[in-house]
User: Fold these one by one.
Assistant:
Number 1:
Amino acid sequence: MNLDSTTIVILLVVLARFVVPLLIPRFPLPAIIASLVLDAVDGTVLEVLTGSEPEGYQTYDKALDVFYLAIAYLSTIRNWRQMTAYRVSQFLFYYRLIGVATFELSGARWVLLVFPNTFEYFFIWYEALRTRWNPVKFAVAHILIAAAAIWIFIKLPQEWWIHVAQLDFTDEVKANPLLWTVLFVVGIAILVPLAFRYKRYLGTPDWGLTFKVDTHLERRPDPGTPVVERVFTWALLEKVVLVGLVSIIFSQLLTLEASALQIVVAVGTVVVVNALISSWLTRRGATWERVGVTFVVMSIVNFGVLVGYILLRSSFEAEFDTGEIFFLVLVFTLIVTLFDHYRPLGARLVGRTEDPIEARFKT
C-alpha cells in the first residue's frame, strides 16, 4: 500500500496522541501537559503540513481526548495515596464521562457546561504539587477547596466559552488585542502574589523537583504468588461502567449504528468474559506482571470474540465499519488491561495485600 505524505502526517499525529498518554502513569505532569498541548495544536499542525484539517479527523480527535483522560484516571489508581484526592478525582472523572456520553447521545451543548472537565485540571494541580510536596499530608479541606476553585473559576468559564458561546480564542484576540493584553497583565499581577502566598502555605518542600512519580512511591518486594480474587466484585462493576461509557462515546463519534444499550451489553459481556478468563488462568498459576503480555493475550481473546460477532452479525440489526469497531476494541482492551494491572501494583507499592484500591489509604 502506497502512503502519500498527507496520510503519513495524519498517522504520525494520531500515533503521537495515542502513545504520549501512555507515559502519564510514570511521568504524570509532563505527560498530561504534553497530551493537552497535542490536543490543542494537532489540528493546526495538520492544516499547516497538509493544507487543511482532514475530513473526519475531529471524530478521532474527540475520541483521543477521552482516551488520554482515561489513562490519567487509571494512573490515579496506580499512584495516588491521598484518599480524599483519589475519591474526588474518581467522582470528577466519571461525572465528566457521563456528561460527554449524554452530550454525544443528545447533542445538547449545554450539557458540557453542567458536566465540566474539572478532572483534568484537578489532576494537573495534584501532580504539579507532588513534584515538590508529599500530597498525603494535604488536609481534606485543602483538596476540596482546590477542586471547587478549579470547577468554578477555571472550568465553568472555559466550558461556557467553548461549548455555549462557541467563541474562538485566536479570533477574539485578533479582534480585541488591547483588551486581551490588559486582561493578561492584570491576571499576572493577581496570580503571581497568590502563587507566592500558596507556596508559603504549603511550607518547606518534602523533596527535590522530580517528574518521575515512582521516585517517591516505595515498591515492596513482590511475594510472587498470584492473588486470586473473586470475579464479581465492585472493581468488575467499575470496569463495566468505565469501558461502557467510553464505548458509548466512541460509538457516537465513530458513527457505529448501535444503541447505547447494545453497546453496554456487548462491552459488559466482553469485560466479564475477560475477568473469567483472567481468573481461570491465575488459578492455574499464570502471572500478569508484564502489562504488554496481558494486553496481547486479551487482545487476541477480544478480537476472537469480535470476529465471531462479525460472522454472526447478519442476525443483528446493528451495522458498523469493521475498522472502526476494531479500533474501539483495541482501546477498551488497553483500558481494561491497565485497570487490572494497576490495582494490585498500587497495593504492592505500599506493601499491602488486602483490597488493592482501599489498602493504600490505610495507615
Number 2:
Amino acid sequence: MTHRGTRKEPPTDALYEATLRLVDGAIETLASRQDDQAVHLARKATKRIRAALRLMRQSLGTAIYHRENRRVRDAARPLTALRDAFMLRRALRKMPSRSAPLEHGLKFEYRREREAFTRQGSQAALTQLRAARRHLGERGPNARQVASTAEAVGETYRAGRKARTRARSNDDPALHEWRKQTTYLLNQLELLRAVFGFDVKKMRRRAHTLAATLGDDHDLSVLCAKLRRYDATTPRLTQHIQRLRSRLQRRAKKQGRKLYRHSAKHIKATLAANFSKLSG
C-alpha cells in the first residue's frame, strides 16, 4: 500500500468533498444527456457514491447513512433497468446461435425500458440525487471520517469473504451477492486511491478482475432466465451458456481465493496504520 503524497484538503474533508463531486457529476451527466453511455456513466457514479457513503457510515451516523444510501439506491434503479436491457442484447449477440423469439423479446424490453426512462426514469433519478446532494451538503465533514473509512473497508472485505463461502454452492442468488460485495470493495479501494492516495494495487486489481468475472456470469444467468421466459431454449445455446458459466465460475473461485486470502482484521489494521500516518 503506497501513499502518493499530501493533499490540499485535510483527510477529514477529502472524502466528504469527493462524495459531493461524485453526486454533482452524476446529476450533470443525467441532466445533459440520456443516451446509453450517459446512463452507464451515471450508474457507475451511483455505485461509487454508495461506496463513499459506506466509508463515511460511522461519521454520518446510522440513520443518515441509511437515508442517503436509500436515495442513491433508488436513483440507480431506473438506470440499472435500462443498462440490463442493453447488456442482455449485447450478450446475446456474442452467442453462436440466436433465437428469434428471444431477440424480439429483448428488443421489446429494451424499447420499453428506454421509453420509461425517457418518460419518467431520468427525472426520478435526478430528483433522488438532488435530494441526496442537498442533505449531504448540509452535513459538512466530520473528524471521525478517517477512522470510519478503515473500519468500513474491513467490514466490506469481511462481507465479501462470507459471500464467497456461500457462493461455493454456485447458487445464482449467492453468486449475485458475492458480485455485489466484491464490487463494493472495488469501489472503496478506488476511492482510497483517488481521495487519499492509498493504492492497494494487488488487491484492487484482483477485485476488479473478480467483479468483472462475476458480472459476466450474472449477465449469462439473467440471459438464461430470459430464454425460459420466452420459451426460446435450444440445446446448442443452452449448452454453450452452461459451458461459459462453468468456466467463469471456476475462474471466479480461483480469483476469489487470492483476493480474500487475508482476514478482515488484517485489512483493518493495515488501513488504520496508513491512515494514522496520513493524519499525523
Number 3:
Amino acid sequence: MRIRIINRLDFGIGDDKVLTMAVFELRTPLSAEERAEKRKLILRDSVALFAIFAITAALAVLTYFLFASFSRHRDVLARRWQANGERALSAGHPVQAVQALRSALEYAPGRREIEIDLATALAAEHRNLEATAYFNTLLESQPGNGLIHLQLARLSASDGKTALAEEHYQRALDGTWQGDGYTRRREVRLELVRYLISQKDYPRAQTELRTAAGNAPKDPDTQLAIASLMEQAQDSTDAFNIYSAHAQMRGASLDALEGVGRTAYAIGYITAAREALVRAVNHRGFSAQSESQQNSIRQMLANSNRILDLYPDPDLTVRARAARIENNAKIAGDRLTACITEPNAAPKLAALQAQWQQQPRLTLRALERDPQLEQTIMNLVYATEKQTAQVCGAPTGDDAILLKLAQAPRAVQSK
C-alpha cells in the first residue's frame, strides 16, 4: 500500500493557528489477469477503429469512382445529344436540333457551346425572340464573343433592324474567336458586305471589300470571290484589277477570264473585254456551264465586236473612219426622228434637233477634210443616244451599241 498527498489545505484560525490536512489515496496494483484483459480491450478497440477507418476509406473511394463513372457517362450522353443536334442543324432540321440540344443541356447544364448551338437552332427555326433572348443572356457573361455578336447580327438583319445588325457585325469583327480568328473575321466581313449589298449600301460595301482584299491571302479562290462581290457592289474597276491579275497567270481559270470580260465591258474597256471573252469562249470549261451563262457571254462578245465595228478608231484610214462616222450619224438621226414622234417628246428634244439642223450636209469628202467635224458629229451622236434613251426609253440594236459606246468613248481601247 502506498500513501500519496494529493493536496494540502491551509486554514487560518485567528492569527497564529494553522490546521494542515492531508488527503490520502489508497491504490491497489492490478493483477496479471487484469492487465491482460486491459491489453485485450485496447487491442480490440484499436482493431475496431482501424476497421471503421478502412470501411470509410473504401466507401469514399467507391463513391469517387461511381461519381466519376456517372459524370463520364453524363458527359458522353451530353456530347452524343450535342452531335445529334449539330447534325440535324446541318441537315436543315432545326426542330429536331432544338430537341436534341435541350437533351444535351439536361446532361451538361450550363455548357456554353451547347447553349450557343441551341440558340443557333432556335434562330434557324425562326424563333427569333427566343434566340435573341438566349444570345443576349449569353452575351452578358461574354460581351466580347464574336460568334454571339454574329448570331445577333443575323437575327437583327432578319428582323429588319439594319442599324443594330450593322453594329453587331462590327462587334463580331472586333470580338474574340476560337480557332482561326483571322479566317473567321474575314468571313464575317464578307457576310457584312453581302448584307450591305442587299441594302444597296454600295459605298460602304466597297470600303469593306477593299479592306478584305488587302488582308486576304493571295489564293485564287479567295481573291476571285472578293472580285465577284466587288462586281455586285458596283465596283467594276477594282474587280477588273483582281480578275486581270489572275487572267494573266498560266492556266487562267474560266471565272477569271469571264470576270475580266464582264468588268471590262462594264467600264467601257471594250478591246480588253473582247480579248478576254474570246479566251473564255475557247476555254475547255466553257461548254460545261449552263446554257444561259454561255448565251450571256456570247452576247457580250457579240456586242463588243459590234462596238468596235462602229467605233471611229483613230488608227483607221481617214476614209474608213469617215465612213463609220457617217454610218453612226445615220443611226442616231433615225433614232431621233422616231423618238420625236412619240407623245410629249418633241419639246424635250427640240434643242438637240436644232443642233443637227445646223450641221452641214454630211459627206465622206467633208468628213475626210475636217477632223473637227468628225468630233462634232460623234459628240452629237453620243448626245442623241443619251437623250433619246431618257425620253423614249432604252434603245435596241445599233442604238443600244452606240449608247454603250457613248458612256465611255475614250476608254474603248484601254486595258
Number 4:
Amino acid sequence: MIKNLKDLKVIFMGTPEFAVPILEMLIENTNVIGVVTQRDKEVGRKRILTPSAIKAVALEHNIKVFTPTKIKNEYENILALEPDIIITCAYGQILPKVILDNPYYGCINVHASLLPLYRGASPIQTCIMDGATETGVTIMYMDEGMDTGNIINYQSIPIEEDDTYKTLSDKLSILGRDLLLKELPKIVEEENNNFKQDDELATYTKLIKREDERINFNKTRKEVYNFVRALNPTPLANTIINNEEVKIIETRIGSDKKGVPGTITNVSKDSFSIMCSDGEIEIIAIKPSGKKEMKVKDFFNGYDKNKLLNVKVGENNE
C-alpha cells in the first residue's frame, strides 16, 4: 500500500481548461508519470495548430505526453509506465476495459455533475440550458459504461441566475480539484465508502455539435436566455440576421408582449429585442460575422438600426 501520496504513480487523462486545476493539484501532491490528452487542433481563422490546455501544463513540467487518436487501439505505451492509478477529467474518449482493469487503485473520474444526473459529454452546458438551480462534481470509479461507475463522493453548488458556461465551469473545476484531493488518501487506503448509482434516476447529455448552436425562438424567453449563457464563451449561440450569422453573447429577459416568434420587435440605443413564444428577449452583446465581440450599442455606431426592425431572424431571406 502507498504510504505517501508523493509515491503514488498517476497517469492523468484530460483535455480542456476545466481539467487544468486538477492536473496541477496532482502534480503538486502525487507523482504524475504521464498525461494523456487529445491531439493538437487548428485554432482561429489562421488555423494555428495549438496543444490542449492539459498538454501545455504537462510540457511545462516535463511530463511525458501521449495523444492517441483512438485510445482503444493505442494504449500499450501508456500502460508500460505501470501507473498505480489513472485519473481522468473531461478527456474526451471512452477507456477500454484493458485500461480500466490495469491500475492497482483503479481508474477514477472527476465528472462535472451530480451523478447519475447529466451523464455524458456536456453536463455543464446542459444543466444551464435546463434551468437547473444546482449542480456539482462527482468523484467516481470508472467502468465500461458512460459515467455509470460507483460514486466515491460528490459535492454540490448552486447555479446562479447569471452563471455562464465559463463561470460555472471555473467554479466546478476548483470544486473538483479540492474534492479529489480530499478523497485521494481514502482511495489509496481503500477505505472510501463508494456506492452504486441509481440508474433509474439517470439523465444524459450529448456532445454539442455545430447544428446545436442555433437559437430556437419558438421557445420561451427564459429558455433562450439559458441557452445563450450555456454556450458562452464557446461555442456561442447563433442566429441568422439579414442573411448573416450573428453569434449572441449576452441577453436579458424583455417584455411579455406577444408577437411572431423570431421577429425583431424593438430597437433601442443599446439593444434590440427578438420575440420568443412568451415575449421578448433583449440582445445586449453580439459577435457579427467576421468581427469581434461587441456590445450592441457599439455595433449600432455607423449602422442603420432601422434595417433590423421587423426582420425575421433565424433564416436566409435571399
